[in-house]
Design a protein that fits this description.
Distance between the termini: 39 Å
Strand order of the largest sheet: 3-2-1-4-5-9-8
Number of helices: 7
Shape: globular
Structural class: alpha/beta
Strand content: 25-35%
């Protein structure tokens, strides 16, 4: 078990209480309009289930997972939707999802594992699909409050995206943390997989 997973197991309820009701509308608006009606979304590392709950409320089909079994259990009950327990390296689906949402989840991996995790998610994405990722803005990796973080710059996000096969349209932008009392900044990326589902 990684240090970060152990942290979320220990602090699952507090983390859910802190994040479940944060308004992320501006991020949804940059992602959801690119998806077809009744799209199937993978919420990869869903945490409290906040985003899955919103996607379900908007009529999307959702598959959600988290590496923390305690957090997955709390999230599934909070949003009345199943949340499985697995890690990025256990994603084995092939061209299954119209959209993949990895909000503040890949950042807990060491930098050497991120390209492989992105490749796994990319394989699970249908041609024409959209992948959303977010990282705290910065450089390098660090330990903070019992969790591992890999930060990213715009150049790093572009580098990871460019390594993905048939990566087309790429949008990268910065946002401030939406939680009260936080002064951190986030880098968001939306990458489209070229092609269409008839290929």
């Amino acid at each position: 078990m990684s240090q970060s997973v152990a942290y979320y197991n220990e602090h699952a309820q507090a983390f859910l209480d802190e994040t479940l009701y944060v308004d992320m509308s501006s991020l949804y608006d940059a992602f959801l309009p690119h998806l077809p009606e009744n799209a199937h979304i993978l919420d990869a590392g869903c945490g409290s289930g906040r985003d899955s709950r919103e996607f379900l409320a908007r009529g999307y089909r959702v598959t959600a997972f988290d590496a923390s079994d305690k957090l997955a259990d709390l999230a599934s009950r909070a949003i009345s939707h199943p949340v499985s327990v697995r890690t990025f390296d256990q994603v084995s689906e092939y061209q299954t999802y119209d959209g993949i949402w990895a909000c503040a989840s890949l950042l807990h991996l060491p930098p050497q594992q991120i390209p492989q995790a992105l490749a796994k998610l990319w394989q699970a994405l249908k041609p024409g699909g959209m992948l959303y990722v977010s990282f705290k803005r910065g450089e390098g990796q660090r330990e903070q409050n019992g969790r591992h973080f890999t930060d990213a710059t715009e150049e790093q996000l572009k580098s990871w995206a460019s390594a993905l096969h048939k990566a087309g349209k790429i949008a990268i932008w910065q946002t401030a943390d939406r939680r009260p009392g936080r002064d951190e900044y986030w880098l968001n990326g939306v990458f489209q997989k070229c092609g269409n589902t008839r290929e």
